TrEMBL record:
<dbReference type="InterPro" id="IPR045266">
    <property type="entry name" value="DOH_DOMON"/>
</dbReference>
<feature type="domain" description="DOMON">
    <location>
        <begin position="42"/>
        <end position="162"/>
    </location>
</feature>
<dbReference type="GO" id="GO:0005507">
    <property type="term" value="F:copper ion binding"/>
</dbReference>
<dbReference type="GO" id="GO:0005615">
    <property type="term" value="C:extracellular space"/>
</dbReference>
<dbReference type="GO" id="GO:0042420">
    <property type="term" value="P:dopamine catabolic process"/>
</dbReference>
<dbReference type="GO" id="GO:0042421">
    <property type="term" value="P:norepinephrine biosynthetic process"/>
</dbReference>
<protein>
    <recommendedName>
        <fullName>DOMON domain-containing protein</fullName>
    </recommendedName>
</protein>
<dbReference type="InterPro" id="IPR000945">
    <property type="entry name" value="DBH-like"/>
</dbReference>
<dbReference type="Pfam" id="PF03351">
    <property type="entry name" value="DOMON"/>
</dbReference>
<dbReference type="InterPro" id="IPR005018">
    <property type="entry name" value="DOMON_domain"/>
</dbReference>
<dbReference type="GO" id="GO:0030667">
    <property type="term" value="C:secretory granule membrane"/>
</dbReference>
<dbReference type="GO" id="GO:0004500">
    <property type="term" value="F:dopamine beta-monooxygenase activity"/>
</dbReference>
<dbReference type="GO" id="GO:0006589">
    <property type="term" value="P:octopamine biosynthetic process"/>
</dbReference>
Length: 185
């Protein structure tokens, strides 16, 4: 009897953790992410889940070109740790870990500035007029071109997307927000 109970609890535990796992596969499933915010009437949705010492993020957007999220700028874009996603209609996906050196860029890749590419995994898909770009990263990468992402409390971010796939092309839309990170789930 005790053994059956233990087995049932184990199965329940597996089911609960599976429901909370993020698959970095370019698809957002119901319940996959813990938190979400929407900008520009849904033109740019940001979803995230903190799992242990990692963060999983997804961007769902109607952008024709790149999408990007920037962490903790000092002013406008300056000193912001940025992650760019390029999701091609052909299926090709690229991700760039970057850092904006000035208020209006430029934002070279961390690797071009002596830092490292801290993106642990990424994936993306286009469907109809929308795209999904997902990535994961350590909350604290130890790289000086990465901000430490807090698991809870307020965190300032900027977001942007472009009509172009050119890394140096300006955004068609951009904005900023203070996220309530919400803790680990
Ligand atoms: C090559 C890429 C980029 C260029 C050339 C660029 C350039 C600029 C310029 C000139 C402005 C001043 C306002 C304006 O003219 O609209 C600006 C504002 C801004 N940018 Fe960028 N930017 C780039 C990438 C990014 C990225 C990747 C992000 C976010 C992850 C971002 C976030 C912002 C934000 C939040 C503002 C303020 C917008 C506002 O207050 O309306 N930018 N950018």
């Amino acid at each position: 009897m005790k053994r059956n109970l233990a087995a049932a609890l184990l199965l329940l535990g597996i089911a609960v953790s599976a429901a909370h796992a993020v698959d970095v596969d370019g698809k957002i499933l119901p319940g996959e992410y813990a938190r979400e915010v929407s900008f520009d009437k849904g033109s740019f949705r940001l979803l995230w889940r903190i799992a242990g010492d990692k963060v999983f993020m997804a961007i769902d957007s109607d952008a024709k070109g790149w999408v990007a999220i920037g962490f903790e700028p000092t002013r406008i874009m300056a000193n912001s740790d940025m992650i760019f996603g390029f999701v091609e209609t052909s299926g090709g996906v690229r991700a760039v870990d970057a850092w904006s050196t000035g208020m209006f860029g430029p934002h070279p890749a961390d690797t071009a500035q002596g830092g490292k590419d801290s993106i642990l995994s990424f994936a993306g898909l286009r469907s109809g007029n929308r795209l999904v770009f997902e990535f994961s990263r350590a909350l604290d990468t130890g790289d000086k071109f990465d901000k430490i992402i807090p698991a809870a409390g307020t965190f300032k971010i900027i977001w942007a997307h472009s009509q172009s796939m050119d890394f140096n092309a300006k955004h068609s839309k951009a904005g900023s927000a203070a996220l309530d990170m919400g803790g680990s789930y």
